[in-house]
Protein backbone atom coordinates (compact mmCIF):
# COMPACT_ATOMS: atom_id res chain seq x y z
CA UNK A 1 0.00 0.00 0.00
CA UNK A 2 1.59 3.28 -1.06
CA UNK A 3 1.32 5.99 1.58
CA UNK A 4 0.15 9.06 -0.28
CA UNK A 5 -0.69 11.94 2.02
CA UNK A 6 -3.61 14.24 1.25
CA UNK A 7 -2.85 17.96 0.99
CA UNK A 8 -4.41 18.46 4.48
CA UNK A 9 -2.14 15.76 5.89
CA UNK A 10 0.88 17.37 4.16
CA UNK A 11 -0.01 20.74 5.71
CA UNK A 12 -0.45 19.20 9.15
CA UNK A 13 2.84 17.33 8.79
CA UNK A 14 4.61 20.59 7.92
CA UNK A 15 2.98 22.38 10.85
CA UNK A 16 4.05 19.68 13.34
CA UNK A 17 7.54 19.49 11.82
CA UNK A 18 8.13 23.24 12.14
CA UNK A 19 6.68 23.31 15.63
CA UNK A 20 8.86 20.44 16.84
CA UNK A 21 12.02 21.84 15.21
CA UNK A 22 11.54 25.41 16.42
CA UNK A 23 9.67 25.15 19.71
CA UNK A 24 10.68 21.80 21.16
CA UNK A 25 14.07 20.68 19.81
CA UNK A 26 16.08 23.51 21.43
CA UNK A 27 14.87 22.42 24.90
CA UNK A 28 15.07 18.64 24.63
CA UNK A 29 18.60 18.16 25.98
CA UNK A 30 17.97 20.21 29.09
CA UNK A 31 14.81 18.31 30.05
CA UNK A 32 16.32 14.95 29.17
CA UNK A 33 19.10 15.70 31.65
CA UNK A 34 16.85 16.98 34.41
CA UNK A 35 14.02 14.46 33.93
CA UNK A 36 11.62 17.32 34.65
CA UNK A 37 8.20 17.42 32.97
CA UNK A 38 8.24 20.42 30.59
CA UNK A 39 4.65 21.52 31.15
CA UNK A 40 5.21 24.79 29.30
CA UNK A 41 6.33 22.90 26.17
CA UNK A 42 3.16 20.83 26.23
CA UNK A 43 1.07 23.94 26.75
CA UNK A 44 2.55 25.37 23.54
CA UNK A 45 1.28 22.25 21.74
CA UNK A 46 -2.14 22.67 23.35
CA UNK A 47 -2.33 26.15 21.78
CA UNK A 48 -2.13 24.42 18.39
CA UNK A 49 -4.70 21.82 19.46
CA UNK A 50 -2.34 18.82 19.50
CA UNK A 51 -4.07 17.42 22.59
CA UNK A 52 -7.51 17.15 21.01
CA UNK A 53 -6.70 15.74 17.60
CA UNK A 54 -8.63 12.51 18.13
CA UNK A 55 -11.61 13.94 19.99
CA UNK A 56 -14.61 13.78 17.64
CA UNK A 57 -15.67 17.12 16.18
CA UNK A 58 -19.09 16.95 17.85
CA UNK A 59 -17.31 17.03 21.21
CA UNK A 60 -15.03 19.92 20.30
CA UNK A 61 -11.99 18.12 18.91
CA UNK A 62 -10.43 17.80 15.46
CA UNK A 63 -11.78 14.28 14.86
CA UNK A 64 -8.67 13.08 13.04
CA UNK A 65 -8.65 9.56 11.67
CA UNK A 66 -6.01 7.04 12.71
CA UNK A 67 -3.90 7.47 9.56
CA UNK A 68 -3.62 11.21 10.11
CA UNK A 69 -2.71 10.59 13.75
CA UNK A 70 0.18 8.47 12.46
CA UNK A 71 1.39 11.42 10.37
CA UNK A 72 1.36 13.70 13.41
CA UNK A 73 2.94 11.24 15.83
CA UNK A 74 5.73 10.23 13.46
CA UNK A 75 6.63 13.88 13.00
CA UNK A 76 6.64 14.51 16.76
CA UNK A 77 8.82 11.50 17.47
CA UNK A 78 11.46 12.46 14.93
CA UNK A 79 12.35 15.21 17.38
CA UNK A 80 11.04 13.98 20.73
CA UNK A 81 9.06 10.73 21.18
CA UNK A 82 8.04 11.67 24.74
CA UNK A 83 6.11 14.58 23.28
CA UNK A 84 3.96 12.18 21.28
CA UNK A 85 3.65 9.76 24.23
CA UNK A 86 2.26 12.46 26.47
CA UNK A 87 -0.36 13.39 23.88
CA UNK A 88 -0.99 9.73 23.06
CA UNK A 89 -1.75 8.77 26.66
CA UNK A 90 -4.40 11.45 26.75
CA UNK A 91 -5.83 9.80 23.71
CA UNK A 92 -5.52 6.24 25.08
CA UNK A 93 -7.47 7.25 28.19
CA UNK A 94 -10.03 9.10 26.14
CA UNK A 95 -10.23 6.32 23.55
CA UNK A 96 -11.54 3.97 26.26
CA UNK A 97 -14.26 6.54 27.00
CA UNK A 98 -15.00 6.91 23.27
CA UNK A 99 -15.22 3.12 22.87
CA UNK A 100 -17.58 2.45 25.75
CA UNK A 101 -18.71 5.71 27.31
CA UNK A 102 -22.10 7.35 27.28
CA UNK A 103 -22.48 10.66 25.43
CA UNK A 104 -22.44 12.39 28.79
CA UNK A 105 -19.15 10.71 29.77
CA UNK A 106 -17.54 11.55 26.42
CA UNK A 107 -18.61 15.17 26.77
CA UNK A 108 -17.54 15.47 30.42
CA UNK A 109 -14.09 14.04 29.82
CA UNK A 110 -13.48 15.72 26.46
CA UNK A 111 -14.29 18.96 28.29
CA UNK A 112 -11.49 18.21 30.73
CA UNK A 113 -8.93 17.69 27.95
CA UNK A 114 -9.96 20.54 25.67
CA UNK A 115 -8.87 23.49 27.89
CA UNK A 116 -5.44 21.83 28.23
CA UNK A 117 -5.99 18.87 30.52
CA UNK A 118 -4.42 15.45 30.72
CA UNK A 119 -5.79 11.92 31.05
CA UNK A 120 -4.19 8.64 32.11
CA UNK A 121 -4.78 5.00 31.23
CA UNK A 122 -4.27 2.84 34.32
CA UNK A 123 -4.11 -0.89 33.64
CA UNK A 124 -0.68 -2.04 34.83
CA UNK A 125 -0.02 -2.98 38.44
CA UNK A 126 3.13 -4.05 40.27
CA UNK A 127 2.12 -7.72 39.86
CA UNK A 128 0.04 -7.48 36.69
CA UNK A 129 1.99 -6.31 33.65
CA UNK A 130 1.87 -8.64 30.65
CA UNK A 131 -0.81 -10.71 32.40
CA UNK A 132 -3.26 -7.83 32.55
CA UNK A 133 -6.23 -10.05 33.48
CA UNK A 134 -4.55 -10.89 36.80
CA UNK A 135 -4.91 -7.33 38.09
CA UNK A 136 -5.78 -7.02 41.77
CA UNK A 137 -7.28 -3.56 42.18
CA UNK A 138 -10.76 -4.26 43.50
CA UNK A 139 -14.10 -2.61 42.89
CA UNK A 140 -16.89 -3.27 45.38
CA UNK A 141 -20.41 -1.94 44.94
CA UNK A 142 -21.67 0.26 47.74
CA UNK A 143 -25.13 1.69 47.14
CA UNK A 144 -24.92 3.56 43.83
CA UNK A 145 -21.15 3.88 44.07
CA UNK A 146 -18.11 1.63 43.68
CA UNK A 147 -15.24 1.55 46.17
CA UNK A 148 -11.83 1.06 44.54
CA UNK A 149 -8.76 -0.24 46.35
CA UNK A 150 -5.37 -1.09 44.89
CA UNK A 151 -2.28 0.24 43.24
CA UNK A 152 -1.36 1.11 39.66
CA UNK A 153 2.10 1.74 38.29
CA UNK A 154 3.79 3.22 35.21
CA UNK A 155 0.93 5.67 34.83
CA UNK A 156 1.83 8.12 32.06
CA UNK A 157 0.88 11.74 32.84
CA UNK A 158 -0.05 10.64 36.40
CA UNK A 159 1.03 13.80 38.20
CA UNK A 160 -0.81 16.08 35.77
CA UNK A 161 -3.94 14.14 34.89
CA UNK A 162 -7.44 15.45 35.36
CA UNK A 163 -8.95 11.98 35.06
CA UNK A 164 -7.78 8.40 35.23
CA UNK A 165 -9.29 5.44 33.39
CA UNK A 166 -8.77 2.76 36.03
CA UNK A 167 -9.31 -0.94 35.46
CA UNK A 168 -10.34 -2.90 38.55
CA UNK A 169 -11.86 -6.30 39.21
CA UNK A 170 -15.21 -7.11 40.76
CA UNK A 171 -14.11 -10.74 41.21
CA UNK A 172 -10.49 -11.85 40.80
CA UNK A 173 -11.50 -15.46 40.14
CA UNK A 174 -13.21 -14.33 36.91
CA UNK A 175 -9.90 -12.98 35.51
CA UNK A 176 -10.63 -11.00 32.29
CA UNK A 177 -14.41 -11.30 32.76
CA UNK A 178 -14.24 -9.54 36.14
CA UNK A 179 -12.27 -6.54 34.90
CA UNK A 180 -14.29 -3.34 34.89
CA UNK A 181 -13.37 0.19 33.78
CA UNK A 182 -13.99 3.29 35.90
CA UNK A 183 -13.22 6.96 35.40
CA UNK A 184 -11.67 8.41 38.51
CA UNK A 185 -11.46 12.17 38.68
CA UNK A 186 -8.47 14.05 40.02
CA UNK A 187 -8.93 15.09 43.64
CA UNK A 188 -11.21 12.18 44.55
CA UNK A 189 -10.52 11.39 48.24
CA UNK A 190 -8.29 8.32 48.65
CA UNK A 191 -6.54 8.81 45.29
CA UNK A 192 -2.83 9.43 45.79
CA UNK A 193 -0.32 10.12 43.05
CA UNK A 194 2.93 8.36 43.88
CA UNK A 195 6.54 8.90 42.95
CA UNK A 196 7.64 9.90 39.47
CA UNK A 197 9.81 7.20 37.85
CA UNK A 198 13.39 8.22 37.08
CA UNK A 199 13.48 6.58 33.66
CA UNK A 200 16.22 5.48 31.25
CA UNK A 201 14.49 7.23 28.33
CA UNK A 202 11.40 9.23 27.41
CA UNK A 203 12.48 11.49 30.23
CA UNK A 204 10.23 14.33 29.07
CA UNK A 205 7.19 12.22 29.90
CA UNK A 206 5.72 11.91 33.38
CA UNK A 207 5.33 8.39 34.82
CA UNK A 208 3.97 7.74 38.30
CA UNK A 209 2.44 5.27 40.71
CA UNK A 210 -1.18 5.59 41.71
CA UNK A 211 -2.63 4.41 45.02
CA UNK A 212 -6.37 3.92 45.46
CA UNK A 213 -7.45 3.72 49.06
CA UNK A 214 -11.23 3.42 49.43
CA UNK A 215 -11.78 5.66 46.42
CA UNK A 216 -15.52 6.21 45.95
CA UNK A 217 -16.57 6.35 42.30
CA UNK A 218 -20.15 7.19 41.36
CA UNK A 219 -22.00 4.76 39.08
CA UNK A 220 -22.12 7.45 36.37
CA UNK A 221 -18.32 7.00 36.04
CA UNK A 222 -18.57 3.28 35.30
CA UNK A 223 -17.37 2.53 31.75
CA UNK A 224 -19.76 0.26 29.90
CA UNK A 225 -21.04 -2.67 31.95
CA UNK A 226 -19.49 -4.63 34.81
CA UNK A 227 -16.98 -7.07 33.27
CA UNK A 228 -16.51 -5.07 30.04
CA UNK A 229 -13.23 -3.54 31.19
CA UNK A 230 -10.75 -6.03 29.74
CA UNK A 231 -12.21 -5.76 26.25
CA UNK A 232 -12.35 -1.96 26.51
CA UNK A 233 -8.68 -1.88 27.51
CA UNK A 234 -7.70 -4.27 24.69
CA UNK A 235 -9.64 -2.28 22.11
CA UNK A 236 -8.03 0.92 23.40
CA UNK A 237 -4.65 -0.77 23.10
CA UNK A 238 -5.39 -1.89 19.53
CA UNK A 239 -5.44 1.78 18.67
CA UNK A 240 -2.71 2.76 21.13
CA UNK A 241 -0.34 0.20 19.63
CA UNK A 242 -0.76 1.70 16.16
CA UNK A 243 -0.02 5.18 17.52
CA UNK A 244 2.90 3.69 19.37
CA UNK A 245 4.22 2.14 16.14
CA UNK A 246 3.99 5.54 14.44
CA UNK A 247 6.07 7.01 17.26
CA UNK A 248 8.81 4.39 17.04
CA UNK A 249 8.83 4.84 13.25
CA UNK A 250 9.37 8.56 13.81
CA UNK A 251 12.17 7.85 16.26
CA UNK A 252 13.83 5.52 13.72
CA UNK A 253 13.44 8.09 10.95
CA UNK A 254 14.92 10.82 13.17
CA UNK A 255 17.91 8.55 13.87
CA UNK A 256 18.38 7.75 10.17
CA UNK A 257 18.37 11.48 9.37
CA UNK A 258 21.09 12.05 11.98
CA UNK A 259 23.11 9.06 10.75
CA UNK A 260 23.05 10.18 7.10
CA UNK A 261 24.01 13.74 8.02
CA UNK A 262 26.90 12.60 10.21
CA UNK A 263 28.15 10.00 7.72
CA UNK A 264 28.37 12.70 5.04
CA UNK A 265 30.35 15.02 7.32
CA UNK A 266 32.65 12.59 9.06
CA UNK A 267 35.89 12.10 7.12
CA UNK A 268 38.16 9.09 7.78
CA UNK A 269 40.82 7.58 5.52
CA UNK A 270 40.52 10.72 3.37
CA UNK A 271 36.81 10.47 2.49
CA UNK A 272 33.38 10.90 4.12
CA UNK A 273 32.47 7.61 5.81
CA UNK A 274 29.24 7.47 3.77
CA UNK A 275 31.39 6.56 0.76
CA UNK A 276 32.05 3.19 2.42
CA UNK A 277 29.74 0.40 1.33
CA UNK A 278 29.70 -0.95 4.91
CA UNK A 279 28.04 2.29 6.05
CA UNK A 280 25.78 2.50 3.00
CA UNK A 281 24.49 -1.03 3.59
CA UNK A 282 23.75 -0.24 7.24
CA UNK A 283 21.84 2.88 6.17
CA UNK A 284 20.00 0.99 3.44
CA UNK A 285 18.85 -1.65 5.94
CA UNK A 286 17.77 1.02 8.42
CA UNK A 287 15.79 2.79 5.70
CA UNK A 288 14.25 -0.40 4.32
CA UNK A 289 13.15 -1.75 7.72
CA UNK A 290 11.75 1.61 8.79
CA UNK A 291 9.76 1.91 5.58
CA UNK A 292 8.43 -1.64 6.08
CA UNK A 293 7.34 -0.70 9.61
CA UNK A 294 5.67 2.44 8.33
CA UNK A 295 3.69 0.36 5.85
CA UNK A 296 2.55 -2.03 8.60
CA UNK A 297 1.52 0.95 10.72
CA UNK A 298 -0.53 2.69 8.04
CA UNK A 299 -2.07 -0.62 7.03
CA UNK A 300 -3.30 -1.19 10.61
CA UNK A 301 -4.49 2.43 10.88
CA UNK A 302 -6.38 2.13 7.59
CA UNK A 303 -8.16 -1.00 8.81
CA UNK A 304 -9.27 0.75 12.01
CA UNK A 305 -10.38 3.78 9.98
CA UNK A 306 -12.50 1.41 7.90
CA UNK A 307 -14.09 0.00 11.05
CA UNK A 308 -12.28 -3.34 10.72
CA UNK A 309 -10.77 -5.02 13.81
CA UNK A 310 -7.01 -4.78 13.57
CA UNK A 311 -5.57 -6.44 16.69
CA UNK A 312 -3.24 -8.64 14.61
CA UNK A 313 -2.08 -5.80 12.40
CA UNK A 314 -1.68 -3.40 15.35
CA UNK A 315 0.49 -5.95 17.15
CA UNK A 316 2.55 -6.56 14.01
CA UNK A 317 3.15 -2.83 13.58
CA UNK A 318 3.91 -2.24 17.27
CA UNK A 319 6.31 -5.18 17.49
CA UNK A 320 8.09 -4.63 14.19
CA UNK A 321 8.53 -0.86 14.60
CA UNK A 322 9.50 -1.14 18.27
CA UNK A 323 12.15 -3.80 17.60
CA UNK A 324 13.32 -1.86 14.56
CA UNK A 325 13.75 1.38 16.50
CA UNK A 326 16.12 -0.34 18.93
CA UNK A 327 18.18 -1.71 16.02
CA UNK A 328 18.16 1.53 14.04
CA UNK A 329 19.14 3.76 16.97
CA UNK A 330 21.83 1.25 18.01
CA UNK A 331 23.25 1.29 14.47
CA UNK A 332 23.11 5.08 14.48
CA UNK A 333 25.29 5.12 17.60
CA UNK A 334 27.62 2.73 15.76
CA UNK A 335 27.88 5.04 12.74
CA UNK A 336 28.70 7.93 15.09
CA UNK A 337 31.41 5.76 16.70
CA UNK A 338 32.85 7.23 19.91
CA UNK A 339 30.82 10.40 19.44
CA UNK A 340 27.66 8.33 19.41
CA UNK A 341 28.45 7.23 22.93
CA UNK A 342 28.89 10.81 24.09
CA UNK A 343 26.05 12.81 25.59
CA UNK A 344 27.20 15.75 23.48
CA UNK A 345 25.47 14.20 20.47
CA UNK A 346 21.75 13.44 20.30
CA UNK A 347 21.93 9.80 19.30
CA UNK A 348 22.68 8.10 22.62
CA UNK A 349 19.39 9.59 23.84
CA UNK A 350 17.60 8.12 20.84
CA UNK A 351 18.99 4.70 21.74
CA UNK A 352 17.81 5.10 25.35
CA UNK A 353 14.40 6.33 24.17
CA UNK A 354 13.97 3.38 21.81
CA UNK A 355 14.08 0.60 24.41
CA UNK A 356 10.67 1.31 25.90
CA UNK A 357 9.03 0.66 22.53
CA UNK A 358 9.73 -3.03 23.08
CA UNK A 359 8.12 -2.88 26.52
CA UNK A 360 5.11 -0.62 27.05
CA UNK A 361 1.60 -1.15 25.70
CA UNK A 362 2.51 -4.83 25.53
CA UNK A 363 6.05 -6.15 25.17
CA UNK A 364 7.32 -7.42 21.82
CA UNK A 365 6.78 -10.92 23.21
CA UNK A 366 3.12 -10.15 24.02
CA UNK A 367 2.62 -8.77 20.51
CA UNK A 368 3.96 -12.04 19.11
CA UNK A 369 1.49 -13.91 21.35
CA UNK A 370 -1.38 -11.83 19.95
CA UNK A 371 -0.23 -12.53 16.38
CA UNK A 372 0.31 -16.24 17.06
CA UNK A 373 -3.12 -16.52 18.73
CA UNK A 374 -4.71 -15.44 15.45
CA UNK A 375 -2.82 -18.22 13.67
CA UNK A 376 -3.88 -20.79 16.24
N1 LIG B 1 -10.32 -6.53 21.34
C1 LIG B 1 -11.47 -7.00 21.88
N2 LIG B 1 -11.51 -8.06 22.71
C2 LIG B 1 -10.36 -8.67 23.00
C3 LIG B 1 -9.12 -8.23 22.48
C4 LIG B 1 -9.13 -7.11 21.60
N3 LIG B 1 -8.01 -6.65 21.06
N4 LIG B 1 -8.15 -9.01 22.95
C5 LIG B 1 -8.73 -9.94 23.75
N5 LIG B 1 -10.06 -9.70 23.77
C6 LIG B 1 -11.07 -10.48 24.49
C7 LIG B 1 -11.01 -11.96 24.10
O1 LIG B 1 -11.75 -12.20 22.92
C8 LIG B 1 -11.60 -12.63 25.30
O2 LIG B 1 -13.00 -12.51 25.26
P1 LIG B 1 -13.95 -13.82 25.38
O3 LIG B 1 -13.61 -14.42 26.72
O4 LIG B 1 -15.34 -13.27 25.32
O5 LIG B 1 -13.59 -14.71 24.26
C9 LIG B 1 -11.13 -11.75 26.45
O6 LIG B 1 -10.81 -10.47 25.87
C10 LIG B 1 -9.90 -12.30 27.14
O7 LIG B 1 -8.92 -12.45 26.14
P2 LIG B 1 -7.71 -13.50 26.31
O8 LIG B 1 -8.27 -14.81 26.75
O9 LIG B 1 -6.92 -13.47 25.04
O10 LIG B 1 -6.92 -12.86 27.54
P3 LIG B 1 -5.51 -13.24 28.17
O11 LIG B 1 -5.62 -13.11 29.64
O12 LIG B 1 -5.03 -14.54 27.61
O13 LIG B 1 -4.55 -12.04 27.70
C11 LIG B 1 -3.14 -10.69 26.27
C12 LIG B 1 -4.36 -11.65 26.41
C13 LIG B 1 -1.84 -11.36 26.65
C14 LIG B 1 -3.14 -10.31 24.82
C15 LIG B 1 -3.37 -9.44 27.15
O14 LIG B 1 -3.28 -9.76 28.53
C16 LIG B 1 -2.38 -8.33 26.88
O15 LIG B 1 -2.51 -7.61 25.88
N6 LIG B 1 -1.38 -8.16 27.77
C17 LIG B 1 -0.48 -7.01 27.69
C18 LIG B 1 -1.07 -5.88 28.45
C19 LIG B 1 -0.46 -4.58 28.08
O16 LIG B 1 -0.36 -4.22 26.91
N7 LIG B 1 -0.09 -3.84 29.10
C20 LIG B 1 0.48 -2.54 28.93
C21 LIG B 1 -0.50 -1.50 29.37
S1 LIG B 1 -0.09 0.11 28.86
S2 LIG B 1 1.61 0.47 29.70
UniProtKB/TrEMBL annotation:
SUPFAM superfamilies: Acyl-CoA dehydrogenase C-terminal domain-like (SSF47203), Acyl-CoA dehydrogenase NM domain-like (SSF56645)
InterPro entries assigned to the protein according to its UniProt record, in alphabetical order: Acyl-CoA_DH_CS, Acyl-CoA_Oxase/DH_mid-dom, Acyl-CoA_Oxase/DH_mid-dom_sf, AcylCo_DH-like_C, AcylCo_DH/oxidase_C, AcylCoA_DH/ox_N, AcylCoA_DH/ox_N_sf, AcylCoA_DH/oxidase_NM_dom_sf
GO molecular function, one term: flavin adenine dinucleotide binding
Family: Belongs to the acyl-CoA dehydrogenase family.
The protein's required cofactors: FAD
Domain annotation Acyl-CoA dehydrogenase/oxidase C-terminal: ranges: 227-375
Residue ranges of every copy of the Acyl-CoA dehydrogenase/oxidase N-terminal domain listed in the record: 6-115
Protein source organism: Desulfosporosinus fructosivorans
Protein name: Acyl-CoA dehydrogenase
Domain Acyl-CoA oxidase/dehydrogenase middle: start-end pairs: 120-215
Amino acid sequence: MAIILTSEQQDLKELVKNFMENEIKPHVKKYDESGEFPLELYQKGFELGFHLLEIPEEFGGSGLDHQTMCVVLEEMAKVEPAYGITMLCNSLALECVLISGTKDQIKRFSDKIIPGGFGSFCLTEPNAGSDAASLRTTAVKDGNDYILNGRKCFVTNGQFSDFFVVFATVDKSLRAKGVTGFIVEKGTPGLTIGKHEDKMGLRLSNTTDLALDNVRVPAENLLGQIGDGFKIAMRGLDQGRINNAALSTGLSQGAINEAVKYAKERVQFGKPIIKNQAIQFMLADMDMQTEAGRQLTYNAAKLLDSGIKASREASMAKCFCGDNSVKVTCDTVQIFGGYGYSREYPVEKMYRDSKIFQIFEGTSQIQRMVIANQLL
